[in-house]
Each structure stands twice: as structure tokens, then as C-alpha cells.
Amino acid sequence: MTHAHRVGDELPPLEIPVTRTLIVAGAIASRDYQDVHHDADLAREKGSPDIFMNILTTNGLVGRYITDHFGPTAVLRKVAIRLGAPNYPGDVMRLTGRVTDVRAGEPAEATVLVTGDNGIGRHVTGTVTVALPQTAVALPQKGGSGA
Question: 119 CB contacts (<8 Å, ≥6 apart)?
């Protein structure tokens, strides 16, 4: 199901439990074999309280958040994220988004500011540009009167 989207629209939040399995599986799937993403003892030796999620897993979860919202015809054009507080096992990451730009064209595009918070702070901040079918976007009316 597609919805009209306008600048300022808020996406419904998505809460993702940060499990040990999710962290390890994401690291393996993205071929990131750094020990801080799968070995708690070695992570602690390096000063971390536990293993933590890698950026590629976060990037994938941000992409999923957008495509789950905009539907199966949405195509990610650009995902640009910055990490902050680590995602440790046992926490929950809550993703939220707000449409910041909508552009006409074939296909139309929307830009969404995405943030993800966990129990210790802001885990991720980013912008996602997504291509959408024309019917999924409410474009501004020309002339300002709407008539």
C-alpha cells in the first residue's frame, strides 16, 4: 500500500531489538570479521563493554526502514549515515524519519532524515534519497492557490 508523502511528514517509528545474533549475523553477512563485532572477550580487551553493531548492518536497517514504509516499488538512491552511540546487545534501536524534500519526475524522489536512538543515545543520523512511483508522492501545487 502506498501513501502520499509531503515535506514534513513523519514516518512511523520502528523498534529493532539489538540481539547478539543480529550483531553477529550482520557482521558475517557484510563480511566484516573484526573481532569487536563477534567476540565479547576481545571486544572488552579493546575497551568496549561488549560486541557492537557494525555500520553496514546499521546501513541495511536504515534502508529496510525506508523501503518498508514506502513499499515494494521504492528504490534506494542514496543512503548517507553517521554513527554515534554504539548498538550493544540487549538494547533497542528506535528508528524515526521525517520527509525533508520531495521532487517531481519519473520517478519522483523523496529525501528522508532518519535518526536511530538506543538506551545510551543517538546511534545513527542520516539522509536517505528514495525513488518512488509518481502516485506515492503528493507534489506541491503550482500557483499557491491550490485551485
Answer: 91, 92
What DSSP element (H or E) covers 98? Answer: strand 91-103
- CA–CA distances in Å: residue 55 to residues 31, 86, 124: 12, 10, 9
The pLDDT tens digits of the residues spanning 97-119 come to 999 999 988 889 999 999 999 99
- What whole-number distance in Å separates Cα of residue 125 and Cα of residue 144? 33
Question: Is 127 in contact with 112 (CB distance < 8 Å)?
Answer: yes
User: What residue spans of the chain are helical by DSSP H?
Assistant: 20-29, 40-45, 55-70
Whether residue 44 contacts residue 50, with contact meaning beta carbons closer than 8 Å, is answered with yes
pTM of the complete model: 0.86
H or E stretch at 97? strand 91-103
